[in-house]
Amino acid sequence: MALPRRIIKETQKLQSEPVSGITATPDESNARYFKIVVVGPQDSPYENGNFNLELFLPEEYPMAPPKVRFMTKIYHPNIDKLGRICLDILKDKWSPALQIRTVLLSIQALLSAPNPDDPLANDVAQLWKQNEAQAIRTAKEWTAQYAA
Amino acid sequence: MDEERKLVRERVLCSLLKKENGKRIDLEIERNCSVKDILDLCQAPDSRLILTGVELTPTTVLSDLFSLEHFEFILFPPESRGHILSTVKLPCPVLIFKYLNSIVFGKSVEHHPHFPEINFAICKECVKTTRSPTPAYPKITCSQCQSYLISSKPRCSCEVPNPSKNSICTEHDRDQIIIPQLRLPENIRLQGGGSSNLCCICFDEIRLEPVVVFQKSGLPCHVTCLPCYERYAEHSIKERKSPALSFNSSGVMLACPACHSVPDKTWKPQILRLFGDEIYDLYGTMSTEFFLSKQENRLFCPKQSCGSVFLVETKEGGIITCPVCYYQFCANCNEEAHQGECSNAPSNDNSKSLIAKMKKCPDCQTPAEKISGCNHMTCQAPFCDTEWCWICCRVWSLQCQLEHWGLHDPGTEID
Protein backbone atom coordinates (compact mmCIF):
# COMPACT_ATOMS: atom_id res chain seq x y z
CA MET A 1 0.00 0.00 0.00
CA ALA A 2 1.26 3.44 -0.90
CA LEU A 3 2.37 5.68 1.95
CA PRO A 4 -0.38 8.22 2.75
CA ARG A 5 0.46 11.81 1.85
CA ARG A 6 0.00 12.82 5.45
CA ILE A 7 2.88 10.58 6.60
CA ILE A 8 5.14 11.97 3.86
CA LYS A 9 4.23 15.53 4.88
CA GLU A 10 4.81 14.85 8.57
CA THR A 11 8.19 13.23 7.88
CA GLN A 12 9.33 16.16 5.74
CA LYS A 13 8.20 18.69 8.34
CA LEU A 14 9.93 16.79 11.17
CA GLN A 15 13.19 17.00 9.23
CA SER A 16 12.88 20.58 7.98
CA GLU A 17 11.59 21.96 11.30
CA PRO A 18 12.73 19.51 14.00
CA VAL A 19 11.39 19.70 17.56
CA SER A 20 14.04 21.15 19.86
CA GLY A 21 15.78 18.35 21.76
CA ILE A 22 14.30 15.57 19.61
CA THR A 23 15.52 13.87 16.45
CA ALA A 24 13.24 11.60 14.43
CA THR A 25 14.73 9.53 11.61
CA PRO A 26 12.58 7.33 9.37
CA ASP A 27 13.91 3.83 8.72
CA GLU A 28 15.40 3.37 5.25
CA SER A 29 13.43 0.24 4.52
CA ASN A 30 10.18 1.13 6.32
CA ALA A 31 8.87 4.69 6.18
CA ARG A 32 6.37 3.92 8.96
CA TYR A 33 9.15 3.10 11.44
CA PHE A 34 11.08 5.92 13.13
CA LYS A 35 14.16 5.96 15.34
CA ILE A 36 13.74 8.73 17.91
CA VAL A 37 16.33 10.31 20.20
CA VAL A 38 14.99 12.49 23.03
CA VAL A 39 17.43 14.62 24.99
CA GLY A 40 16.68 14.64 28.72
CA PRO A 41 15.09 18.02 29.56
CA GLN A 42 17.06 20.55 31.61
CA ASP A 43 16.46 20.56 35.38
CA SER A 44 15.01 17.04 35.27
CA PRO A 45 16.71 13.88 36.58
CA TYR A 46 17.13 12.91 32.91
CA GLU A 47 19.33 15.92 32.04
CA ASN A 48 22.34 15.06 29.87
CA GLY A 49 20.76 11.76 28.85
CA ASN A 50 20.05 10.67 25.27
CA PHE A 51 17.03 8.37 25.23
CA ASN A 52 16.39 6.12 22.26
CA LEU A 53 12.80 5.38 21.35
CA GLU A 54 11.10 3.56 18.52
CA LEU A 55 7.91 4.85 16.91
CA PHE A 56 5.73 2.90 14.51
CA LEU A 57 2.76 4.19 12.52
CA PRO A 58 0.23 1.36 12.20
CA GLU A 59 -1.85 0.76 9.07
CA GLU A 60 -4.84 2.63 10.54
CA TYR A 61 -2.81 5.75 11.37
CA PRO A 62 -3.97 8.51 11.85
CA MET A 63 -7.22 6.88 13.02
CA ALA A 64 -5.19 4.74 15.43
CA PRO A 65 -2.32 6.20 17.51
CA PRO A 66 1.39 5.60 16.78
CA LYS A 67 3.07 2.87 18.82
CA VAL A 68 5.96 4.29 20.86
CA ARG A 69 8.41 2.57 23.18
CA PHE A 70 11.55 3.57 25.09
CA MET A 71 14.54 1.44 23.98
CA THR A 72 16.84 3.00 26.59
CA LYS A 73 16.28 1.91 30.18
CA ILE A 74 14.71 4.74 32.16
CA TYR A 75 13.57 5.18 35.76
CA HIS A 76 10.26 6.99 35.44
CA PRO A 77 6.92 6.43 37.20
CA ASN A 78 5.02 6.27 33.91
CA ILE A 79 7.40 4.10 31.89
CA ASP A 80 7.74 0.40 32.66
CA LYS A 81 10.76 -1.88 32.38
CA LEU A 82 9.86 -2.85 28.80
CA GLY A 83 9.82 0.83 27.83
CA ARG A 84 6.03 1.03 27.48
CA ILE A 85 4.62 4.48 28.19
CA CYS A 86 1.50 5.24 30.21
CA LEU A 87 0.29 8.28 28.30
CA ASP A 88 -3.40 8.94 27.61
CA ILE A 89 -2.93 10.31 24.07
CA LEU A 90 -1.20 7.06 23.06
CA LYS A 91 -4.33 5.15 24.08
CA ASP A 92 -7.93 6.20 24.45
CA LYS A 93 -7.37 9.96 24.24
CA TRP A 94 -5.78 9.69 20.80
CA SER A 95 -7.39 11.82 18.10
CA PRO A 96 -6.62 11.76 14.36
CA ALA A 97 -5.91 15.50 14.57
CA LEU A 98 -2.83 14.75 16.71
CA GLN A 99 0.47 13.92 15.00
CA ILE A 100 3.97 12.52 15.53
CA ARG A 101 5.17 15.98 16.59
CA THR A 102 2.55 16.33 19.34
CA VAL A 103 3.28 12.81 20.61
CA LEU A 104 7.00 13.53 20.87
CA LEU A 105 6.33 16.82 22.65
CA SER A 106 4.10 15.02 25.15
CA ILE A 107 6.81 12.44 25.85
CA GLN A 108 9.34 15.23 26.35
CA ALA A 109 6.90 16.89 28.77
CA LEU A 110 6.50 13.59 30.61
CA LEU A 111 10.26 13.56 31.22
CA SER A 112 10.11 17.11 32.55
CA ALA A 113 7.72 15.91 35.30
CA PRO A 114 6.75 16.89 37.90
CA ASN A 115 4.64 19.54 36.24
CA PRO A 116 1.75 20.71 38.44
CA ASP A 117 -0.23 22.06 35.46
CA ASP A 118 -0.49 18.62 33.87
CA PRO A 119 -3.10 16.35 35.46
CA LEU A 120 -1.12 13.21 34.65
CA ALA A 121 2.09 14.72 35.95
CA ASN A 122 0.15 15.72 39.06
CA ASP A 123 0.20 12.08 40.17
CA VAL A 124 3.87 11.95 39.32
CA ALA A 125 4.49 15.05 41.40
CA GLN A 126 2.88 13.41 44.43
CA LEU A 127 4.67 10.15 43.84
CA TRP A 128 7.90 12.03 43.56
CA LYS A 129 7.17 13.81 46.87
CA GLN A 130 6.73 10.58 48.79
CA ASN A 131 10.11 9.13 47.79
CA GLU A 132 11.62 12.25 46.35
CA ALA A 133 15.28 12.02 47.26
CA GLN A 134 15.59 8.33 46.57
CA ALA A 135 13.57 8.47 43.34
CA ILE A 136 15.55 11.33 41.86
CA ARG A 137 18.84 9.72 42.85
CA THR A 138 17.89 6.48 41.13
CA ALA A 139 16.62 8.30 38.03
CA LYS A 140 19.92 10.21 37.78
CA GLU A 141 21.97 7.05 38.27
CA TRP A 142 20.05 5.24 35.55
CA THR A 143 20.43 8.23 33.21
CA ALA A 144 24.21 8.24 33.74
CA GLN A 145 24.43 4.47 33.39
CA TYR A 146 22.13 3.79 30.40
CA ALA A 147 21.55 7.07 28.57
CA ALA A 148 24.95 8.77 28.62
CA MET B 1 -42.92 28.59 -14.11
CA ASP B 2 -40.02 27.13 -16.08
CA GLU B 3 -37.72 27.47 -13.14
CA GLU B 4 -40.27 26.42 -10.58
CA ARG B 5 -42.09 23.14 -10.69
CA LYS B 6 -45.17 22.31 -8.73
CA LEU B 7 -45.41 19.30 -6.52
CA VAL B 8 -47.87 18.20 -3.90
CA ARG B 9 -46.59 16.01 -1.13
CA GLU B 10 -48.78 15.53 1.82
CA ARG B 11 -48.16 11.92 2.54
CA VAL B 12 -44.86 10.13 2.69
CA LEU B 13 -43.98 6.53 2.27
CA CYS B 14 -42.72 4.62 5.25
CA SER B 15 -41.29 1.16 4.97
CA LEU B 16 -41.30 -1.18 7.89
CA LEU B 17 -38.91 -4.10 8.04
CA LYS B 18 -40.06 -6.94 10.20
CA LYS B 19 -37.21 -9.03 11.43
CA GLU B 20 -39.38 -11.98 12.39
CA ASN B 21 -40.03 -12.91 8.78
CA GLY B 22 -37.78 -10.52 6.83
CA LYS B 23 -40.85 -9.01 5.16
CA ARG B 24 -41.02 -5.38 4.23
CA ILE B 25 -44.28 -3.56 4.72
CA ASP B 26 -44.82 -0.19 3.07
CA LEU B 27 -47.09 2.25 4.85
CA GLU B 28 -48.25 5.71 3.96
CA ILE B 29 -48.15 8.18 6.80
CA GLU B 30 -49.17 11.79 7.26
CA ARG B 31 -46.34 14.26 7.53
CA ASN B 32 -47.65 15.56 10.80
CA CYS B 33 -48.24 12.20 12.46
CA SER B 34 -47.00 11.48 15.95
CA VAL B 35 -44.95 8.64 17.29
CA LYS B 36 -48.13 7.10 18.67
CA ASP B 37 -49.72 7.20 15.19
CA ILE B 38 -46.77 5.33 13.73
CA LEU B 39 -46.90 2.69 16.41
CA ASP B 40 -50.62 2.24 15.77
CA LEU B 41 -50.00 1.93 12.04
CA CYS B 42 -47.33 -0.67 12.75
CA GLN B 43 -49.89 -2.48 14.93
CA ALA B 44 -47.50 -2.25 17.83
CA PRO B 45 -49.19 0.29 20.13
CA ASP B 46 -47.11 -0.64 23.20
CA SER B 47 -43.76 -0.46 21.44
CA ARG B 48 -41.13 2.19 21.89
CA LEU B 49 -39.39 4.22 19.22
CA ILE B 50 -35.66 4.90 19.52
CA LEU B 51 -33.87 7.52 17.46
CA THR B 52 -30.10 8.12 17.63
CA GLY B 53 -30.00 6.40 21.01
CA VAL B 54 -32.84 8.43 22.54
CA GLU B 55 -36.38 7.21 23.20
CA LEU B 56 -39.12 9.31 21.60
CA THR B 57 -42.25 10.10 23.55
CA PRO B 58 -45.60 9.04 22.02
CA THR B 59 -46.64 12.67 21.52
CA THR B 60 -43.55 13.62 19.51
CA VAL B 61 -44.58 14.84 16.05
CA LEU B 62 -42.24 13.59 13.35
CA SER B 63 -42.14 16.84 11.42
CA ASP B 64 -40.66 18.50 14.51
CA LEU B 65 -37.71 16.14 14.55
CA PHE B 66 -35.91 16.47 11.26
CA SER B 67 -38.26 18.73 9.36
CA LEU B 68 -39.65 15.92 7.26
CA GLU B 69 -36.43 14.70 5.90
CA HIS B 70 -35.46 11.13 6.35
CA PHE B 71 -36.08 9.14 9.50
CA GLU B 72 -34.79 5.87 10.60
CA PHE B 73 -35.99 4.32 13.79
CA ILE B 74 -35.46 1.25 15.78
CA LEU B 75 -38.84 0.01 16.83
CA PHE B 76 -38.96 -1.74 20.16
CA PRO B 77 -41.61 -4.26 20.94
CA PRO B 78 -43.03 -4.11 24.46
CA GLU B 79 -40.87 -5.88 27.01
CA SER B 80 -41.79 -9.50 26.86
CA ARG B 81 -40.19 -12.72 25.89
CA GLY B 82 -39.81 -13.69 22.29
CA HIS B 83 -40.17 -10.24 20.75
CA ILE B 84 -38.00 -8.76 18.12
CA LEU B 85 -36.34 -5.48 17.38
CA SER B 86 -37.63 -4.06 14.14
CA THR B 87 -36.37 -1.25 12.01
CA VAL B 88 -38.71 1.34 10.61
CA LYS B 89 -37.57 3.47 7.71
CA LEU B 90 -39.54 6.48 6.64
CA PRO B 91 -39.75 8.22 4.25
CA CYS B 92 -37.32 7.34 1.45
CA PRO B 93 -34.16 9.41 1.72
CA VAL B 94 -33.46 11.84 -1.06
CA LEU B 95 -30.35 13.75 -2.00
CA ILE B 96 -29.17 16.36 -4.48
CA PHE B 97 -26.05 16.71 -6.54
CA LYS B 98 -24.09 18.84 -9.02
CA TYR B 99 -22.19 21.90 -8.04
CA LEU B 100 -23.71 25.26 -7.79
CA ASN B 101 -21.67 27.51 -10.00
CA SER B 102 -19.70 29.64 -7.60
CA ILE B 103 -20.29 32.74 -9.74
CA VAL B 104 -24.05 32.33 -9.47
CA PHE B 105 -23.68 31.85 -5.77
CA GLY B 106 -21.47 34.92 -5.56
CA LYS B 107 -24.21 36.96 -7.24
CA SER B 108 -26.82 35.64 -4.86
CA VAL B 109 -24.75 36.76 -1.93
CA GLU B 110 -24.22 40.13 -3.51
CA HIS B 111 -27.88 40.76 -4.24
CA HIS B 112 -29.22 39.13 -1.13
CA PRO B 113 -27.10 39.96 1.86
CA HIS B 114 -29.41 37.89 4.06
CA PHE B 115 -28.90 34.70 2.11
CA PRO B 116 -27.94 32.11 4.70
CA GLU B 117 -24.80 30.02 4.58
CA ILE B 118 -25.28 27.64 1.72
CA ASN B 119 -26.62 24.23 2.65
CA PHE B 120 -25.60 21.01 0.99
CA ALA B 121 -28.00 18.20 0.46
CA ILE B 122 -28.09 14.61 -0.70
CA CYS B 123 -30.72 12.41 -2.31
CA LYS B 124 -30.66 8.63 -2.39
CA GLU B 125 -30.96 8.49 -6.17
CA CYS B 126 -27.98 10.77 -6.61
CA VAL B 127 -25.82 9.18 -3.97
CA LYS B 128 -25.79 5.99 -6.00
CA THR B 129 -23.81 7.60 -8.80
CA THR B 130 -21.66 10.16 -7.08
CA ARG B 131 -20.63 11.18 -3.61
CA SER B 132 -20.32 14.91 -4.03
CA PRO B 133 -23.27 16.70 -2.47
CA THR B 134 -24.66 19.82 -4.10
CA PRO B 135 -26.19 22.97 -2.66
CA ALA B 136 -29.76 22.56 -1.56
CA TYR B 137 -32.55 24.05 -3.63
CA PRO B 138 -35.26 25.53 -1.47
CA LYS B 139 -38.83 24.35 -1.56
CA ILE B 140 -41.51 26.90 -0.87
CA THR B 141 -45.23 26.71 -0.30
CA CYS B 142 -47.69 28.49 -2.58
CA SER B 143 -49.72 30.88 -0.46
CA GLN B 144 -52.88 30.22 -2.54
CA CYS B 145 -53.06 26.50 -3.24
CA GLN B 146 -50.70 25.33 -0.45
CA SER B 147 -48.83 23.08 -2.86
CA TYR B 148 -45.06 22.96 -2.94
CA LEU B 149 -42.99 24.88 -5.46
CA ILE B 150 -39.45 23.91 -6.26
CA SER B 151 -36.96 26.58 -7.03
CA SER B 152 -34.00 25.60 -9.18
CA LYS B 153 -31.99 28.43 -7.68
CA PRO B 154 -31.07 29.11 -4.10
CA ARG B 155 -33.20 31.88 -2.71
CA CYS B 156 -32.64 34.65 -0.31
CA SER B 157 -33.92 34.04 3.18
CA CYS B 158 -36.12 37.10 2.83
CA GLU B 159 -38.10 35.30 0.10
CA VAL B 160 -38.27 31.82 1.53
CA PRO B 161 -39.56 30.98 4.95
CA ASN B 162 -36.96 28.78 6.58
CA PRO B 163 -35.22 27.72 3.37
CA SER B 164 -32.83 25.43 5.20
CA LYS B 165 -35.72 23.22 6.23
CA ASN B 166 -37.49 22.89 2.90
CA SER B 167 -35.79 21.82 -0.26
CA ILE B 168 -36.17 19.39 -3.10
CA CYS B 169 -33.94 17.50 -5.49
CA THR B 170 -34.41 19.09 -8.92
CA GLU B 171 -33.33 15.89 -10.61
CA HIS B 172 -35.68 13.55 -8.83
CA ASP B 173 -38.52 15.67 -7.43
CA ARG B 174 -37.87 14.27 -4.00
CA ASP B 175 -37.20 15.67 -0.58
CA GLN B 176 -33.57 16.29 0.11
CA ILE B 177 -31.70 15.57 3.26
CA ILE B 178 -30.11 18.83 4.29
CA ILE B 179 -26.76 18.41 5.96
CA PRO B 180 -26.14 21.52 8.02
CA GLN B 181 -22.59 20.45 8.76
CA LEU B 182 -21.49 20.79 5.13
CA ARG B 183 -20.22 24.16 3.99
CA LEU B 184 -17.89 25.65 1.41
CA PRO B 185 -14.45 26.31 2.95
CA GLU B 186 -14.48 29.92 1.73
CA ASN B 187 -17.60 30.70 3.74
CA ILE B 188 -16.21 29.70 7.10
CA ARG B 189 -14.26 31.69 9.62
CA LEU B 190 -12.69 29.41 12.20
CA GLN B 191 -12.17 30.15 15.87
CA GLY B 192 -8.52 30.85 16.59
CA GLY B 193 -7.96 31.93 12.98
CA GLY B 194 -7.15 28.46 11.61
CA SER B 195 -7.37 27.80 7.89
CA SER B 196 -10.81 26.62 6.83
CA ASN B 197 -9.46 24.91 3.72
CA LEU B 198 -7.11 22.64 5.65
CA CYS B 199 -8.50 19.25 6.69
CA CYS B 200 -7.57 18.59 10.32
CA ILE B 201 -7.15 14.86 9.65
CA CYS B 202 -5.17 14.50 6.39
CA PHE B 203 -3.67 18.03 6.61
CA ASP B 204 -4.43 18.50 2.88
CA GLU B 205 -5.87 21.62 1.33
CA ILE B 206 -9.50 21.63 0.24
CA ARG B 207 -10.60 24.22 -2.31
CA LEU B 208 -13.76 23.29 -4.17
CA GLU B 209 -15.53 20.55 -2.30
CA PRO B 210 -17.76 21.15 0.69
CA VAL B 211 -16.12 20.50 4.03
CA VAL B 212 -17.56 19.04 7.23
CA VAL B 213 -17.64 21.77 9.85
CA PHE B 214 -17.41 21.13 13.59
CA GLN B 215 -18.53 23.68 16.13
CA LYS B 216 -17.45 24.71 19.57
CA SER B 217 -19.82 26.94 21.55
CA GLY B 218 -21.79 27.66 18.39
CA LEU B 219 -18.78 28.81 16.34
CA PRO B 220 -16.87 26.78 13.73
CA CYS B 221 -13.69 25.28 15.21
CA HIS B 222 -12.28 22.69 12.75
CA VAL B 223 -13.04 21.27 9.32
CA THR B 224 -12.42 17.93 7.61
CA CYS B 225 -12.73 16.81 4.02
CA LEU B 226 -15.44 14.25 3.19
CA PRO B 227 -13.15 11.21 2.67
CA CYS B 228 -11.48 11.81 6.07
CA TYR B 229 -14.86 12.27 7.74
CA GLU B 230 -15.94 8.93 6.34
CA ARG B 231 -12.86 7.16 7.73
CA TYR B 232 -13.21 8.97 11.06
CA ALA B 233 -16.90 8.08 11.33
CA GLU B 234 -16.40 4.46 10.35
CA HIS B 235 -13.47 3.95 12.73
CA SER B 236 -15.18 5.71 15.64
CA ILE B 237 -18.46 3.83 15.23
CA LYS B 238 -16.86 0.42 14.72
CA GLU B 239 -14.50 0.84 17.65
CA ARG B 240 -17.13 2.57 19.81
CA LYS B 241 -14.52 5.28 20.31
CA SER B 242 -14.94 7.80 23.06
CA PRO B 243 -14.39 10.81 23.04
CA ALA B 244 -15.06 10.69 19.26
CA LEU B 245 -18.59 9.54 20.08
CA SER B 246 -20.50 11.81 22.37
CA PHE B 247 -23.93 11.65 23.92
CA ASN B 248 -26.40 14.35 24.88
CA SER B 249 -30.15 14.89 24.73
CA SER B 250 -30.11 14.73 20.91
CA GLY B 251 -28.56 11.28 20.94
CA VAL B 252 -25.23 9.76 20.00
CA MET B 253 -23.15 12.01 17.77
CA LEU B 254 -19.66 12.37 16.34
CA ALA B 255 -17.52 14.96 18.10
CA CYS B 256 -14.83 17.16 16.54
CA PRO B 257 -11.74 15.02 15.87
CA ALA B 258 -9.43 17.80 17.02
CA CYS B 259 -10.98 19.37 20.13
CA HIS B 260 -13.73 16.81 20.84
CA SER B 261 -16.39 19.47 21.10
CA VAL B 262 -19.87 18.25 20.21
CA PRO B 263 -21.48 19.70 17.08
CA ASP B 264 -24.85 19.71 18.84
CA LYS B 265 -27.70 20.93 16.66
CA THR B 266 -25.65 21.01 13.47
CA TRP B 267 -25.02 17.27 13.55
CA LYS B 268 -27.47 14.99 11.83
CA PRO B 269 -26.89 11.28 11.42
CA GLN B 270 -28.04 11.63 7.81
CA ILE B 271 -24.56 12.85 6.94
CA LEU B 272 -23.53 9.20 7.22
CA ARG B 273 -25.92 8.43 4.35
CA LEU B 274 -23.32 9.97 2.06
CA PHE B 275 -21.11 6.98 2.69
CA GLY B 276 -23.67 4.29 2.04
CA ASP B 277 -26.11 2.15 3.95
CA GLU B 278 -23.52 0.05 5.74
CA ILE B 279 -22.05 2.80 7.89
CA TYR B 280 -25.50 4.25 8.55
CA ASP B 281 -26.76 0.89 9.73
CA LEU B 282 -23.68 0.52 11.92
CA TYR B 283 -24.54 3.85 13.50
CA GLY B 284 -28.14 2.72 14.05
CA THR B 285 -26.96 -0.47 15.74
CA MET B 286 -24.39 1.36 17.87
CA SER B 287 -26.79 4.06 19.07
CA THR B 288 -29.45 1.46 19.84
CA GLU B 289 -26.95 -0.66 21.76
CA PHE B 290 -26.11 2.46 23.69
CA PHE B 291 -29.77 2.92 24.55
CA LEU B 292 -30.00 -0.73 25.56
CA SER B 293 -26.85 -0.54 27.67
CA LYS B 294 -28.68 2.01 29.82
CA GLN B 295 -31.71 -0.26 30.35
CA GLU B 296 -31.78 -2.51 33.37
CA ASN B 297 -33.96 -5.22 31.84
CA ARG B 298 -31.71 -5.98 28.85
CA LEU B 299 -30.37 -9.42 28.08
CA PHE B 300 -27.80 -10.81 25.67
CA CYS B 301 -28.48 -14.10 23.91
CA PRO B 302 -25.90 -16.51 25.38
CA LYS B 303 -25.56 -18.45 22.14
CA GLN B 304 -22.07 -17.75 20.83
CA SER B 305 -23.10 -17.34 17.19
CA CYS B 306 -25.92 -14.91 18.10
CA GLY B 307 -25.28 -12.51 20.98
CA SER B 308 -28.33 -10.34 20.15
CA VAL B 309 -29.53 -7.92 22.75
CA PHE B 310 -33.17 -7.52 23.69
CA LEU B 311 -35.45 -6.38 26.50
CA VAL B 312 -37.32 -8.71 28.82
CA GLU B 313 -40.07 -8.21 31.38
CA THR B 314 -38.04 -9.82 34.09
CA LYS B 315 -34.76 -11.66 34.39
CA GLU B 316 -36.08 -13.81 37.22
CA GLY B 317 -36.38 -17.54 36.49
CA GLY B 318 -38.00 -19.44 33.65
CA ILE B 319 -37.14 -20.06 30.04
CA ILE B 320 -36.28 -17.20 27.68
CA THR B 321 -36.43 -17.45 23.90
CA CYS B 322 -34.00 -15.31 21.96
CA PRO B 323 -36.15 -13.26 19.56
CA VAL B 324 -33.52 -13.42 16.82
CA CYS B 325 -32.22 -17.00 16.74
CA TYR B 326 -35.01 -18.63 18.80
CA TYR B 327 -32.43 -20.23 21.09
CA GLN B 328 -34.14 -21.18 24.34
CA PHE B 329 -32.16 -20.74 27.51
CA CYS B 330 -32.64 -20.82 31.25
CA ALA B 331 -32.89 -17.32 32.74
CA ASN B 332 -31.03 -18.51 35.82
CA CYS B 333 -27.96 -20.36 34.53
CA ASN B 334 -27.82 -19.12 30.90
CA GLU B 335 -27.51 -22.76 29.77
CA GLU B 336 -29.81 -24.37 27.23
CA ALA B 337 -33.39 -24.68 28.47
CA HIS B 338 -33.81 -27.58 30.87
CA GLN B 339 -36.55 -29.21 32.93
CA GLY B 340 -37.16 -28.63 36.62
CA GLU B 341 -35.72 -26.30 39.21
CA CYS B 342 -32.41 -24.66 38.33
CA SER B 343 -29.72 -24.61 40.98
CA ASN B 344 -26.72 -23.88 38.76
CA ALA B 345 -24.73 -20.71 39.04
CA PRO B 346 -25.03 -18.35 36.05
CA SER B 347 -22.67 -19.26 33.26
CA ASN B 348 -22.16 -18.63 29.59
CA ASP B 349 -21.33 -21.01 26.78
CA ASN B 350 -18.59 -18.70 25.56
CA SER B 351 -15.05 -19.65 26.57
CA LYS B 352 -15.24 -20.10 30.33
CA SER B 353 -11.50 -19.67 30.72
CA LEU B 354 -11.81 -16.25 29.10
CA ILE B 355 -14.67 -15.28 31.39
CA ALA B 356 -12.58 -16.32 34.38
CA LYS B 357 -9.88 -13.88 33.31
CA MET B 358 -12.28 -10.98 32.95
CA LYS B 359 -12.68 -8.23 35.50
CA LYS B 360 -15.46 -5.68 35.78
CA CYS B 361 -15.42 -1.90 35.62
CA PRO B 362 -16.15 -0.71 39.20
CA ASP B 363 -18.61 1.85 37.83
CA CYS B 364 -20.73 0.25 35.09
CA GLN B 365 -19.78 -3.41 35.72
CA THR B 366 -18.89 -3.99 32.06
CA PRO B 367 -16.48 -6.95 31.89
CA ALA B 368 -13.02 -6.26 30.47
CA GLU B 369 -10.12 -8.41 29.41
CA LYS B 370 -6.54 -7.24 29.53
CA ILE B 371 -4.23 -8.09 26.67
CA SER B 372 -1.18 -6.00 27.45
CA GLY B 373 0.03 -2.75 28.97
CA CYS B 374 -0.07 -1.28 32.44
CA ASN B 375 -2.76 -1.84 35.05
CA HIS B 376 -4.29 1.59 34.52
CA MET B 377 -7.53 0.65 32.74
CA THR B 378 -10.05 2.90 30.99
CA CYS B 379 -13.52 1.43 30.62
CA GLN B 380 -14.46 1.04 26.95
CA ALA B 381 -18.19 0.70 27.53
CA PRO B 382 -20.08 3.37 25.60
CA PHE B 383 -19.75 6.69 27.41
CA CYS B 384 -18.38 5.24 30.66
CA ASP B 385 -14.67 6.17 30.49
CA THR B 386 -14.08 5.25 34.16
CA GLU B 387 -10.38 4.86 34.93
CA TRP B 388 -9.82 1.86 37.12
CA CYS B 389 -7.11 -0.46 38.47
CA TRP B 390 -6.73 -4.00 37.11
CA ILE B 391 -5.16 -5.18 40.38
CA CYS B 392 -7.63 -3.93 43.00
CA CYS B 393 -10.66 -3.33 40.68
CA ARG B 394 -11.29 0.09 42.20
CA VAL B 395 -11.31 3.55 40.64
CA TRP B 396 -7.73 4.52 39.77
CA SER B 397 -6.03 6.34 42.63
CA LEU B 398 -2.62 7.57 43.71
CA GLN B 399 -2.32 4.35 45.71
CA CYS B 400 -2.74 2.36 42.49
CA GLN B 401 -0.21 4.57 40.71
CA LEU B 402 2.30 3.91 43.50
CA GLU B 403 1.75 0.22 44.10
CA HIS B 404 -0.12 -1.36 41.20
CA TRP B 405 0.76 0.44 37.99
CA GLY B 406 3.46 -1.89 36.67
CA LEU B 407 2.59 -5.07 38.63
CA HIS B 408 2.34 -8.21 36.53
CA ASP B 409 -0.72 -10.35 37.12
CA PRO B 410 -0.05 -13.61 35.23
CA GLY B 411 -3.39 -15.18 36.22
CA THR B 412 -5.45 -12.62 34.35
CA GLU B 413 -3.34 -11.47 31.44
CA ILE B 414 -4.34 -12.87 28.08
CA ASP B 415 -1.51 -13.67 25.68
Automatic annotation (TrEMBL), chain A:
The active site is at 86 (glycyl thioester intermediate). Residues 2-148 form the UBC core domain. CDD domains: UBCc_UBE2N. Keywords: ATP-binding, Nucleotide-binding, Transferase, Ubl conjugation pathway. Coiled coil: none annotated. This is Oidioi.mRNA.OKI2018_I69.XSR.g16094.t1.cds. The keyword Transferase applies. Signal peptide: none annotated. Belongs to the ubiquitin-conjugating enzyme family. The keyword Transferase applies.
UniProtKB/TrEMBL annotation, chain B:
PROSITE patterns: TRIAD (PS51873). Pathway: Protein modification; protein ubiquitination. Its EC number is 2.3.2.31. PANTHER family: RBR FAMILY RING FINGER AND IBR DOMAIN-CONTAINING. SUPFAM superfamilies: RING/U-box (SSF57850). Keywords: Metal-binding, Repeat, Transferase, Ubl conjugation pathway, Zinc, Zinc-finger. This is RBR-type E3 ubiquitin transferase. Pfam families: IBR, IBR_2. It comes from the Eukaryota. It comes from Oikopleura dioica (Tunicate). The lineage of its organism: Eukaryota, Metazoa, Chordata, Tunicata, Appendicularia. Residues 195-412 form the RING-type domain. It is an enzyme of class 2 (transferase). It catalyses: [E2 ubiquitin-conjugating enzyme]-S-ubiquitinyl-L-cysteine + [acceptor protein]-L-lysine = [E2 ubiquitin-conjugating enzyme]-L-cysteine + [acceptor protein]-N(6)-ubiquitinyl-L-lysine.
